[in-house]
Amino acid sequence: MFESLSERLETAFKQIKGQGQITELNVASTVKEIRRALVDADVNYKIAKEFTDKVKEKALGEKVLNAISPGQLMVKVVQDELAELMGGTEEGLDLKTSPTVILIAGLQGSGKTTFSGKLARFLKQNRHKSPLLVAADVYRPAAIDQLKVLGEQIGIPVYHEPDQKDPVLIARNALKEAKTKGHNVIIIDTAGRLAVDEAMMTEVADIKAAVAPQEVLFVVDAMTGQDAVNTAKAFNERLDFTGVVLTKLDGDTRGGAALSIKYTVEKPIKFISMGEKLDTLDVFYPERMAQRILGMGDITTLVERAQAQYDEAVAARIEKKIRKNQFDFEDFITQLQQIKKMGNIKDLLGMIPGMGKAVKDLDISDDAFKGIEAIIGSMTPYERTHPDVIDSSRRRRIAGGAGKDIQEINQFMKQFEQMRQMMKGMNKFSAAGRGMRAMK
Ligand code: GDP
């Protein structure tokens, strides 16, 4: 995410890193580089200029403490200002009213329908809500089907009226349905068009007037840079939305939209979406995003994702088996599945400080585990739970089933054995620890 911006900023900091002190001169040249980097990341010049003026003023105003170098100080000032530019602290959804009405608006193809599904899943899983999805796009039957498919995947009902041509009525009826069926959130996915047009704006504004939503979320494709900002302006003038959702941040976006939308429309970015799969929705935290842009990773989000996917019962069962030295291929596959649920691997690695840059050019696809899954998939259930019985003739059979060379199977078995040995070692260590505690 925003790799070229990150690199450019790093280069800008290099100018001041070796310097003994902050001076007008070295701050000025660093700031000039930062401004160029922002403009190249598709940030509007006026915003970039204002940003760097503030950075300059702050950097020169700060006393360099003994413990911190001019380079560190500069990074800190830029980090704070980036976070401020993107919105300061994070803004959650207003979910107090029941049912909470959330209206989703944006251009066609921006990712509205996908986001509606992601949001419904997020509210169900993370906020323990009972959402109702509403298909209010009366022009594209495919859009209704798409929402129905998403709803099925996440186990959330979708309200739709195939023969109804008036989206305002659909929205009203859906609200009634939510009340009778006890849904405490309704998410209305509206129709979009390829460009901002009056008819679309009127339609969304009419739906808004009819159902008085607590949240109107404007969904925009971050890849469209300055266009995203202009579209946001147009939607905000008509809809006075409550928040922005930036999608497709997994793509090759330069960062312009993320950095300038808040400044331009004075509305917070509430969520970011980084993939087509339903599990890649993140609450937007300006401070964390600033850290990521500066190559500092985002451990907090990584831990939160892990916690959200962490199934305690499964983890306890596996831990028990590890303790008894009984870790087998079934457990291995279960753990891989837990990791996969956390999202795209490259994206996860990018959250570890310093890793983003290291893995930037690597081709790490979601299929990274496919080979392992194929090997384990070719084992019989008995073999999976009794790894020790896998002799050379079984290995040959597994290789054939998984479409692998026998060497690859041998290599995999060796790695698995090493892993088990390591677990055994850890057990000894923790058993000793337990013994020592018991002696106290
Ligand atoms: P809508 O017309 O606004 O409802 O947009 P859709 O939800 O149908 O999304 C348009 C296309 O963008 C689809 O192919 C989605 O799979 C894709 N898409 C949506 N969100 C994301 C995202 O965060 N990342 C990527 N890479 N693709 C996305």
From TrEMBL:
The keyword Hydrolase applies. Residues 268-281 form the SRP54-type proteins GTP-binding domain. PROSITE patterns: SRP54. Belongs to the GTP-binding SRP family. SRP54 subfamily. The lineage of its organism: Bacteria, Pseudomonadati, Bacteroidota, Chitinophagia, Chitinophagales. NCBIfam families: ffh. GTP binds at residues 106-113, 189-193, 247-250. Keywords: Cytoplasm, GTP-binding, Hydrolase, Nucleotide-binding, Ribonucleoprotein, RNA-binding, Signal recognition particle. It catalyses: GTP + H2O = GDP + phosphate + H(+). This is Signal recognition particle protein. Signal peptide: none annotated. Involved in targeting and insertion of nascent membrane proteins into the cytoplasmic membrane. Binds to the hydrophobic signal sequence of the ribosome-nascent chain (RNC) as it emerges from the ribosomes. The SRP-RNC complex is then targeted to the cytoplasmic membrane where it interacts with the SRP receptor FtsY. Its EC number is 3.6.5.4. Composed of three domains: the N-terminal N domain, which is responsible for interactions with the ribosome, the central G domain, which binds GTP, and the C-terminal M domain, which binds the RNA and the signal sequence of the RNC. Its main location: cytoplasm. It comes from the Bacteria. Part of the signal recognition particle protein translocation system, which is composed of SRP and FtsY. It is found in: Cytoplasm. Pfam families: SRP54 (PF00448), SRP54_N (PF02881), SRP_SPB (PF02978).
